[in-house]
Amino acid sequence: MSTYVRRPAAGPADDRRRGCVGFLLLPFVLAARIHRPARPDRIVDGAIERAQITRTAVGVIATCWLIYAYPLRESAGSVLSDKLTEVLLSAGLLLILGPIALAAFVLGARRPGPAFYRPRLRGPLTALGALFGTALLMWLIPNLDSIGGLGFVLTFVGGLGYLFLVPFAVASAVLCVHHTFRTADVHEVLPPLISPVLVWAMCVFQLFDSPPVTAPLGVRILFLMGPPLSVTALSFWELRRLRACYGITVRRALGRG
Residue 9's CB: how many other CB atoms inside 10 A? Predict the structure, then answer.
C-alpha cells in the first residue's frame, strides 16, 4: 500500500529566499537568454555539444594544474584578473570579427541565400547590441556626476545598476565567446569557421604577454598552442560531422554545392 506524504507549503521565508536567489541569478539568466542560439529549426548535435564541454573542462583542469604545479609570477588575484581580461578581449575581437564574418557569409551566398539569411541576423545582432550596450553603460555611469544637478542622483542609481551590469557583462562575455555571438542562428557552419580564427588571434596576443607561472619552456609552449590547436581540430571534426550526418557543408550553405 503506497503512502502519500503531504509536503509542507512554502512559507513567506521560503518565498523570500527563492526571490533573493532569483534576483541574484537574474543577470546570468538574462545573459543566457540573450546569447544562446534560439533558432527553432537549428540542428543541435549531442556529440558536438559533449565534445565542446569536454574540451572546456579539460582546459580548465589543465589550467588549474598549471597554477598548482608551478610558482606564480604574480598574485592569484592578478592571474584571475588576467584571465577575465582575456575573456573580455575575446569578446571585443568578436565584436569586430563577428559582423565581418556574417556580412561575408550572407553577401557571399548565391540567391536566394542573402534574402533567406537576412531575417536570421536578428539573433546575432541582439547579442552584439546587448554586449555593446552594456559596455557603453559601464563606461557612461562613472561620468554621470558631471551632468548638472541630477549628477548625484544619477550616479547613485548608476551605482546600483553596476550590481546588475558587472555580472551580466561577465556572463555575456563568456557566453558570446562560447556561442560566437549566436552565429549558429544564421547557419550551423559559422561557429566552427569563426572559432579557430578567434583563438589563433588570441594566441598572437598571448605571445606578447608574460606567462602567469614560472614553468619550463616546453610546458609554456604546450599551454600556448594547446587551445588554438584543440579548437581548430574540434572545428574540423564538427564540420565533418555536419557533412556526414546531416549533409551540411559550407558550399551548400552558400548555395554553391
Answer: 6
- As a whole number of angstroms, the distance between CA 155 and CA 144 comes to 6
pTM of the model: 0.81
HEC string for 28-84: HHHHHHHHCCCCCCCCCCHHHHHHHHHHHHHHHHHHHHHHHHCCECCCHHHHHHHHH
Query: What are the pLDDT tens digits along the chain (257 aa)?
Result: 444 445 444 555 554 555 666 667 888 999 999 999 989 889 888 899 899 889 888 888 888 888 888 887 777 777 777 777 888 888 888 888 888 999 999 999 898 888 999 999 999 999 988 888 888 887 777 766 555 555 556 666 666 777 888 889 888 888 888 888 899 999 999 999 999 999 999 888 888 877 777 878 888 888 889 889 999 999 999 999 999 999 999 999 998 86
Nearest CA among 176, 195, 197, 184 for reference residue 242: 184
Give SS3 for 98.
helix
Sign of CA dihedral 110, 113, 115, 121: negative
